[in-house]
Amino acid sequence: MPLICLAALFVSCLQWSCGDKDGVETKASASGAAANTSSLTLVATTGMVADVVEQVVGNHARVITLIPAGADPHLWTPTRTDIMQLLEADALFMNGLGLEGRAGEAFSRVSNAGRPVCAVTAHLPDGDLLRDPSNPNHPNPHVWMDPGLWGATALAVAEIASQLDPAHAEEFQKNAVQYATEAKKVRDDAAAMLESVPSANRVLISSHDAFGYFGKRFGFEVRGIQGISTESEASVSDIERLVAEICERSIPTVFIETTVSDRTIRALVDGCAARGHSLKIGDALFSDSMGARGTPAGTWPGMIRHNASSVANGLRGGA
Ligand SMILES: [Zn+2]
Question: Model pTM?
Answer without folding.
Answer: 0.87
